[in-house]
Amino acid sequence: MNILVTGGAGFIGSNLVDALIKRGDEVVILDNLSTGKRENINPQAQFIEVDLRDLEKIKPYFSGVNYVFHCAALARVQPSIEDPVKYNDHNVNSTLNVLVAARDAKVKKVVYSASSSAYGNQTQMPLKEDMPPQPMSPYGLQKYIGEEYCRLFFIVYKLPTVCLRYFNVYGPRMATVGAYACAISIFGQQRKQGQTMTVVGDGQQRRDNTFVGDVVRANILAADSGLGDGRSINIGRGKNNSVNEMAAMIGGPTTNLPPRLEPRETLADNSLARELLGWEPKVNLEEWILEYKKELGI
Fold first, then answer.
1. Range of the domain at 257
2. How many domains does the chain contain in total?
3. Catalytic residue at 139?
4. Would you say residue 274 lies in a domain?
5. What CATH code is carried by the domain that includes residue 190?
6. How many Å apart are CA 128 and CA 131, to the nearest integer?
7. 130 and 202 share a domain?
C-alpha cells in the first residue's frame, strides 16, 4: 500500500510511520521540520521537506497514494493563544491543501488527526462526539475547522475521510521542552534535572491521557475500516487523572503557577471507537510512567 503521512517527523506521525513500514507499506513523509525532528524519520520512508501551505509544491507527492494520514499541525493550546494568525495559517490552510491534493489525486481515504480540544469546557462527562463543540482556544477551533472540512469534502467531492479526536497523547518522542511539551513530559524532565515540578493552577484539572501506540492503532484501523463519511471519533483511554495525581506518579516536590485558560476536565467516551473500529486502549498510564521513570533514571 502506498501511504502519505504529513507530519511524519513529529511525535505521533513518526510513530505511525514506523508501524506502517513494519507492516510492509511504502511511506512518503511530508514535513517542514518546524516542530518535527530529523532523528524521528524512519530511514525506510521517503522524506520530503516541504511546507503544506504551498499547494502546488505538495500536489505531486499525492499521485498514486492510497491513503493519507494528516498528522501535521502546530499543536498545543497556549502557543495558539499567543499567535493565532500563524497557527491558523498552519492548521487550517494546510489541512485544506491536503484535502484538495488528496481529492485531485483520487486518494482512497484521508485520516485526519483531530483534537479533543474542540470540546472546550463541557458541563457533562464523559465527552461524546455528538456534543456541540465549544473550543476555548484558536488551536481547538482550528482543529475543529479541519473536521468540518473533512466532512464537507466527503459530502461535496465524495472524498472519504475520518476524523480522530485525540485526548492528551503521550509516549516515545513526545516533546520534552518548550511550548509543545505536555505535563507528563515536563514533570519527568524537571525531576531528571532535580527541579521542582511546576503545576499550573490548583492541579485539580483532570486529563484523559492516551498512549501514542494506541493512537497509532486507531489510525490504521480507521484507514482499514469501511468508514469514510467524515465523522469524528474519540480516541481516548476513557479514564482521567488530575495534574496533581500525574505529578504524584512521577514523584517529588511541586510548586504552583498561576492558572491559565484551559478546560477543567477531559474524559473520552470511547464507545464509538470500540463499536466502529474495534479499537480499545491497551496501555495504562500508571504502568507506563513506572517504565518512563526508569528510562529517565529518577
1. 171-208+240-267+283-296
2. 2
3. yes
4. no
5. 3.90.25.10
6. 6
7. no
> What CATH number is given to the structural domain containing 59?
3.40.50.720
Tell me, yes or no, whether 93 and 47 share the same domain.
yes
Nearest CA among 188, 165, 132, 173 for reference residue 272? 165
Amino acid making up residue 293: K
Same domain, 178 and 247: yes
Of 139, 144, 149, 166, the catalytic one is: 139
- 0.85 cut: is pTM over it? yes
| In a domain? residue 193 | yes
Residues whose CB is less than 8 angstroms from the CB of residue 11 and which lie 6 or more positions away in sequence, other chains included: 40, 169, 171, 173, 174, 175, 212
- Distances in whole angstroms, Cα of residue 171 to Cα of each of 157, 181, 195, 211, 254: 36, 11, 21, 6, 22
pLDDT tens for the chain, residues 1 to 298: 999 999 999 999 999 999 999 999 999 999 999 999 999 999 999 999 999 999 999 999 999 999 999 999 998 888 899 999 999 999 999 999 999 999 999 999 999 999 999 999 999 999 999 999 999 999 999 999 999 999 999 999 999 999 999 999 999 999 987 666 789 999 999 999 999 999 999 999 999 999 999 999 999 999 999 999 999 999 999 999 999 999 999 999 999 999 998 899 999 999 999 999 999 999 999 999 999 999 999 9
